[in-house]
Structures are given as structure tokens and as C-alpha cells.
């Protein structure tokens, strides 16, 4: 899946790069994609008093010109109440430069979800132990040796804990466990697994998405608890990574028998990467309810 980083500016800035943090594009751009990530603070600094003075003078000048133009040309056009052609431009710009003959900049993925992926407010955090297992959402898996802990963000998942392994610059494989909360609208493991696959495939982790091919969509059990498993190929076509076809994504949603939450497991492995897929399959085999 795509990692946060600098990518060619989707707004079309020639030779410019814009930062993708996994959920949104930055306001800042750069000509050097090796620059550090921009700060997550607000917009630019406050304008100086001198700047404000120039703005006020400029506004007064514009108003003065408009008043003079009204007196000079008003009678020729029937005044402001005459037959003036309708302004069909929108009140807000659709692309930079107010060029309303252009199409708006597309979102970072063409895999628009047909469901409304919620943003959870749940702040649960499972304490990680030293027993070699990755825990979250009431479930756990055996950690993969040599893979690193990673702070991943999925807006609809809480208590998310992840391991990742770099495949190449801009691309990685991962395993993760977390929590789906009933208060966010999730229901059965089946529906929740399908919703989560749709949200995941349409997230910013899959820039240049082309298609999703579902390979497995079936009921299963984990530690005697009802669960649902989906395996899909999430395919991309990136000009910067032509050798990457996409990921094999596995999702398990497990009814852990609690009234407020379910456990969820994610994994993503580059299509055709048999060695990493075997590691992840072994990890999946260790999935259990704690």
C-alpha cells in the first residue's frame, strides 16, 4: 500500500510535489521530494500590519474605480439593473487560478467508496506486552519477526496496532489488529468486513487505484467466535511504481462476544510477493480472541 510521502502535485503544479499523509493532501508544496514532512499545524502565519494596510488601501481603490465606472458606463448598459449576461461561474474556485473550464482536481484515489466510512471517536488503547503478540480490539496475532511497529491511521478503526515491512520506496506490506465500534454504525462481522474492505480500498493508501477483485468472502470462526473473512486484490497503476500491481488484502472481523465492539484484522501484501505472503499467512493462522 502507498505510504505517506511527497507525490507529484495533483493540482498540476509543474515540478512541484505535495505531501500525502494517508488521509489528506498538505497545503504546502515543494520542488524537493526529499524534504521532511510539513508540519500539521494551521495555515500560514498572521499577516503583518503593513500587509493589512496595503490590503485596505487596495480595497478602497477598487471601490473608487467601481463607482467611477458606474457613473461613466451605467447609462449605456442600462445600469446594474439592465440586461447583463448571467454570470454562470461558481462562487468558489474549482481549480487553481479560477480556471473554471478545467475539471476539479480528482481525489487521491478513483476508488470512491459507495458507503460513508465513519470517523471513530473511540480512544481505546490496548497495552502491548512482550510475549511476541500484536494486540488490539480484543484479538491478537503472532508478530512477524523483522517487521517494524508502525503508526497506521484508518479513520473508522480504533485501538489500531500495526507492523510493516518496506517493499520499496513508497510501498510497504503490513499486518494490523484493531477495533470496530458498534456506536460507529457497525453491525455483523459479514457487513462490517465488506464495509471495511470498501473503505480500505478507497483510502489514500491506494493512490492510482484501478480495480478491486474479491477472491474470498466467507464466514469462518476464530477461537470459536463467529467471524467473516474477505480476501481481495486491490490493484493500482502507478507511473512511479510500474512494477507494483497492488496488494492482496485480507480482512477478518471477529465477534468477540462484547456488547460494544468487534475485533478486526488487516493485512496487505504486494501481489506476487510469495515470500511475504507466506509470512502473513502464518500470522493469520495465529489469529485468536484474547
UniProtKB/TrEMBL annotation:
The chain crosses the membrane at residues 54-73. It holds the Pfam family DUF2510. Residues 86-95 have a biased composition (Polar residues). Keywords: Membrane, Transmembrane, Transmembrane helix. Residues 27-48, 81-115 are annotated as: Disordered. Residues 4-37 form the DUF2510 domain. This is DUF2510 domain-containing protein. It comes from Brooklawnia propionicigenes.
